[in-house]
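Attaching the record inline, Q. Sequence:
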Amino acid sequence: MVELAVSESPAPPRALPARAARPRRCGWENRYLRVVLAADVLVALAVGAVAFGVRFGVVTTYNQGYLALAALLPAVWALVLGFAQAYDKRHLFVGTAEYQRVLRAGVTLAAGLTFVSYAADIRLARGYVVIVLPLTVLATVVVRFALRKRLHRARSRGRHLRRVVVMGHRRAVADLCRQLRRERYHGLEVVGACVPERRPRPTLGPVPDLGVPVYGTFADAPEAVTVAGADTVVVLSCPELDGVALRRLGWQLERDDVDLIVASALIDVAGGRTTIRPVDGLPMLHVEHARLRGSRRVAKEIVDRCGAALLLVGLAPLLAAVALLIRADSPGPALFRQPRVGRGGALFDIVKFRTMYTDAEARLAELRGANEGAGVLFKMRDDPRVTRVGRYLRRFSLDELPQLVNVLAGQMSLVGPRPPLPAEVAEYPEDMLRRLVVKPGLTGLWQVSGRSDLPWEEAIRLDLRYVENWSLSLDLVILLRTVTAVVRTSGAY
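Structure, as predicted:
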């Protein structure tokens, strides 16, 4: 475990480095907001024009009113998005809340249009409405997703990052530094830390292997912000920082317009499951149970099966071509079946395209020593059992497309935890069995976050995070991210 370097013997006071320049984050945030607004307007304008052309073709006396409606759509759509808080900077840069608000705006616009047409006795062409509303919502989500991916790429190159001073115990600070360096798309760059007071007092020093300086104790936080040129302070859970201390820290930081973030001790619990309710003047954080049943589960089931059916029909020519290539490349069947563990521990046969020679299982024992996988998984970057065609199928995840049959049969979901082998489940500790309360998925957080390159513990943590916080909007984001993950081909072998 990486720990912060703290001097164990008294040392003379060290001169702090010169004050770092604090970047103005408002500039790029405001530019990003203007780009999002312009994109929403252009999307609505384009969708309105396309819907008019598809439904009516040419302008006539009858459809001039719809032409005016198409011209008004961009302004109305931007206004509804504003009321739905889809331009709130707290939700724009990471997470699924932005997409949830876009979907909410679409529902609001549909309800408002229905009410106005009924109240004013306006007879709208249903074909036009059916085209324009869903297409506007879908196109807005896709364009916003593309803009966010562009932002994340910029952050991976060190741009548009918030400079953060972390306050907490040494081990917790080291864990947060390691996670934020791995997931730079969050936009937080740790530039310093403050740790609990000890005797002797900690002096300015780096975190081994991370290079984060320690700027003293919690009492030195305001000075640390100034010296490091930070614009954000993250407070980790520790008993030394109670409500009174946090209130005083907030008063000190507000003078310089420095953001204060309090990190909850709850592990992988999304904000949608937490609410703050005052009880006799005390803010109580209430945690709702994970959504494992009810109407949302039924909606997910419907989306899964309908989506799988549509994808199987649309991809039928590709599936047939891949099957022919497999048969031509090596002897054996095109499909490969393997027992996997589904929801509640039920066994089912997963269907995949065969990417290995037919004697792959018999040759596994001789390759055990070359295992590059994490945990109980066996993975090799250059597995000699993989066929020539199989390498291309794995690189672009085409071997997993037949699992749509499992989704259609109700054994899997489009999005969910990775389907485990029975041998893996037999070695699970008790906490990992939580993965089995939902159906495994064709894709999931594990696939869009690195696939086989992920450490075993990180893959399990991502699966548990999905189980605890799943939603239809999160599923949509994961499906969109799956496309980019497949194109990158990282971690696929």
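The radius of gyration is 27 Å. Strands lie at 162-167, 188-194, 232-235, 259-262, 274-279, 282-287, 335-341, 347-353, 413-415, 441-443.

More tomorrow.
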